Amino acid sequence: LAALFDVATVVMIFFLGRRLFGPAAGLLSAAFLALNVMHIQLSHFFAADPFLTFFVVSAVTFMVLSLKRSQSQRRRLVFLLLASIIVGLAVGSKFSAVLLLLPLSLTVLVNEDRSRKARLILLFAVFIIALLAFAVTNPFAILDWTCDVDSPAIGLGPLEIPLPDLSSCYIENLVLQGTMVRGTRDVPFARQYLGTNAYLYFVEMQMRWGMGYILGLAAFIGFGWAVWRVIKVLYEWWKSRERPLTLSTLNETLENSSELSIGPYVVTRGELVVLAWTVPFFITTGALMVKFMRYLEPLTPFLMLYAAAMLLSLPWRRLRRVIIGLVLIAAGVRAVSFVNMYNQPHPWTVASSWIYENIEPESSILNEVWDDPLPDSLELDGEMRLRGEFGANLVNWLSGVRELDSKQKIEENLALVAGADFVILSSNRNYGVIPRLDDLYPVSSQYYHLLFDGRLGFEVAYVGTRTPNLFGFSYKPETFSWPGTVTPKPVEDYFDDLPGLVGGRFDESFTVYDQPLVIILKNTGRLSAEEMAELFEYS
User: Is pLDDT above 80 for 261?
Assistant: First the structure.
């Protein structure tokens, strides 16, 4: 389903691009989106974002189609009603799509075929239709009132307006998720984003991993180009106006033409509608404390569209063709190399097989809380092997911060470490975060330094991952530089044997589900918990 919806998004961005900038822009934006690595990755997972993105692109496309003057008023109304229904489906996929009400409102208000009163009535009607579409497809969001919600206050400058406490489970979920993504509620898996820059981190991760540098550069420059065109037209129009700038005067201008045209600068009403989605979405999403790369997926089809339109607007036909060819080749190489990665078995499956083949049953295995425990139960050589064959424990380094990151926590965890035959790091979820947050983990941040340099008596017994690759060359993440830990020598040798490029630091959510680095360490030193504890410095 996710893959089908993602393919359908490629089709829809073609129709939107063709309507706004012509057939060439439609085809090129669809090609860019089809080669976008982040979309390829997310189409492999049953996450909400591919569905949300399809509904967002479809809704905006129907909004733009409803503005087409050459068709009948009835047909334009049908497109508008379809757009409002899809807005309800989008909000049902993920609440952040509520921002679609902005372009939907603008679409109705710049409709030149109706009076002001008729537009307001139509605006109310499309909002009700969107709400009904949401309610029909998400009935329990409306019906379930069995939860307790401590509603937050709305801040208005120095004033705060308290909201009444409700019992809606849907609102409870929205409040909980909202406090998490804004960083007002501390959850361990979101601490990876502490110290990252608003907006810039999203852009960096898209450039490094989601789109690649060349396509990403074209996408974000294209976004700026689209915004600048509108600002320039509105500014020039404002300077040449005969009456004050108001929605009414803007509307009158648009009633006489489907575009704003000042000298060489031209912006259509459709472009204004698209920007009414992309700009508010980027401003609100980019400012979040939690910055999972997939949060930006509902914006990326439009970034591909802006990249295509900008590149096609370049002067000098030969130069334009060279640049477009370069972007397509670069995006294609990254896409093919990323798909090649899926030809290899998942690192957790390979590591699980190694565990069953090389570790004696009933050996003590230590996994980490907040990470996926290994081994997975699987069939090996015709025999079903189960995780329960081993004595398994979980150690919790990520929970317990500041005053809770105490000598007592260290001693309790080290008792588990000392008693383990093997310590399994199935990804960088813990060691990629804890060592670089000294203020939150004044003691635990020392653990991975001591573990990786061998002072806790553990040696690396297994290393495994998979990477995007093409013709034997890999695109490798840099796992240890950001947290500032030493790279264990066997891990360094493992990556040295993989020829290719190092992509630098990465967002954990991009690698953890399909290309995690698995490290298994064997307890060869057999230090006691007390001996290990003496290696830590306590404040």
Answer: no
What is the C-alpha separation between 149 and 171, in angstroms, rounded?
7
DSSP 395-454: E--SS--GGGSSHHHHHHHHHHHHT-SEEEE-SSTTTTTGGG-TTT-TTGGGHHHHHHTT
pLDDT in tens, 25-81: 999 999 999 999 999 999 999 999 999 999 999 999 999 999 887 778 888 899 999
Residue 201 dihedral angles phi and psi, to the nearest 5°: -65, -45
Specify the long-range contacts of residues 336-341, CB closer than 8 Å, at least 24 apart: 336/470, 337/468, 337/469, 337/470, 337/475, 338/37, 338/40, 338/41, 338/468, 339/40, 340/468, 340/469, 340/470, 341/466, 341/467, 341/468, 341/469, 341/514, 341/515
Cβ neighbours around 164 below 10 Å, total: 6
Average pLDDT over residues 447-455: 96
Determine the distance from the C-alpha atom of residue 456 to the mean position of all C-alpha atoms in its chain, rounded to a whole number: 37
In angstroms, the CA 184 to CA 170 distance is 19
Q: Are strands 422-425 and 378-380 parallel, antiparallel or unpaired?
A: unpaired
369, two tokens: 């809380």
Helix axes 300-312, 23-34, angle to 10 degrees: 130
pTM: 0.90
What is the spatial distance between Cα 195 and Cα 135, in angstroms, rounded to a whole number?
39
Q: How far is CA 531 from the centre of its chain?
A: 43
- What is the crossing angle of helices 49-65 and 101-109, to 10°? 0
Count of all residues that appear for the chain in the document:
539
3-state secondary structure of 501: strand
The tokens of 207 are what? 């450039």
- Residue 27 near residue 60, CB atoms below 8 Å: no
Among 35-44, 180-189, 451-460, the minimum mean pLDDT is found in 180-189
